[in-house]
Structures are given as structure tokens and as C-alpha cells.
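W.,

You were right to be curious about this one. When I first looked at the sequence I had no strong expectations either way, so I just let the prediction run and decided to look at it fresh. Below is the sequence, 255 residues in total, followed by the output.
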Amino acid sequence: MLLNARAAATALIYRQWEWRGLQADSRRSKSLGDRCLPILLSEIRSALGPGKIISAAVLGLRRDMLAFTKDTIPAISRSLDFFNVMTYDLMNRRDNVTEHHTGIDLSLDSVNAYEERGVPCEKMNLGFAFYIKWYKTDPGGGCDKNAICCKRALMEDPMTGADLGKAGAFAWHETIPEEVSASYKRAMAHGRFDPTQGGHYYWDPEENLWWSWDTSDMIAKVLTAEMKKFEGKYKGEKLDAKFMSGASSRIQDEL
């Protein structure tokens, strides 16, 4: 009954605003129970009918894909037109070492995970982060020797899970927080690309801050890597060098 009511309310709002499509956020599935997500999506699809586009923002870390299994994917896929894979926020407060929050290897792994579970390649869209993230590192965590996978400061209260205020993020169009502005300038001046995992980063030794973000070149590299992986699965469509150059230019304009 609860799922029917939620689906009906969603359909009513949808029609009142005359939307052409609907995006669901799979992060909210935990409030219903992971097994309920296929049922809820089916109810929403029934309420809206087959002519409307429904997509879902789906989490990129394997450990968070609790609602997306080989058993549930067929039912979920019948209700969705697209899976918008969140190939970002792949490092969060629960991690205890520095990692890229977005990157080539991480993006490929996210897509691989959904493909392994049965999501058709043609239904997947890649997500990109138009924002930057920073985290405090442990002063004695060895970041001066190896900035990648060195120890971070404690991010959450171990008993309550409360945010301890040692991490943050902001979009490129937003005002840079004053408390990290000097470190941010250093990150922009000295940021580097990790050729092993394919992420862009900077560790600031002056303030013990780890920065992770996407660049236009890195986004182009992710797209190229994904298209190489799926070559032949998109009915022969390819991203050629001219297209990629134009895509990189347009992304840079946005950033």
C-alpha cells in the first residue's frame, strides 16, 4: 500500500508539472528496503505508462549497490529507460585512506559492476562531477611519502556516524570557502594526473589536505576508455578524435 501511494503521488506531481521524463535517486531506496526498489519502480512505471522516460541515478561503488543484484536487475531494467551511473563520489567519509573520488579506473569499475549484474550497456549513462572535493589527512599518515592511499583523518564519529567537519566539496561556480581557499589555489597550480588509477589530485603538505576533481582532459579520457570498452556494443557508433577534441573543448567551457 505504501509503495502504491508513493507511486501514485509521484505520477500526480509528474502530470501536474507536465514533465517529459523522471529521474529517480537510488540512494533513497534504503528508506524502503532494497528489495522494495524494483516494486516501487514497477508501480511508478504502471502509473506513468510506457510513453514516459524514467531514469535512475545509481551509486557507483560496488559496496553500495545493495539493491542492484543479478536477481533484481531484470525487474528494475523493465521499468527504467536509463541507469545514470554516479561515477563520482567514489571516495567518501567512510574511507580511511586517500583515494580519487572520480577517475578512469573507478568509472570503468562502476560500469563493469552494473554490466556484470545484467544492466544492458545501451541503458547506461556516465556521470561526471562538476565540483571538487577535499579531505583532511592524518599529519602522521605517510602522505609525504605517498599521497595516494595514505591515512586520512577521522571523518565520522565512530559511534554516531556524525560528520566531523574534516571534508567538503563545492561546485566550480560556487564561492571557494575561505578556510580552504589558499590550499585550493595550490591544488589548481600543482594538481597532477595519476597515470595508474586515472584520477586528478593534489595533496597539500602545508595544510594536510587531499583534493580530488575532474578535469576536461580527464573526462575526455574516461569517455575514450568507455567507448573502447563498449566498441561494437553500440551498433558501430564510435567517438572519433575530432569529436573528442570538441567534447573536451565544450567541457572546458563549462568548467
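Here's what jumped out at me. Helices lie at 2-17, 37-48, 73-79, 104-117, 181-190, 216-229, 241-254. And, maybe more interesting for your project: The beta strands are 21-25, 53-59, 82-86, 124-126, 131-136, 167-171, 192-194, 199-204, 209-213.

Coffee later to discuss?

I.
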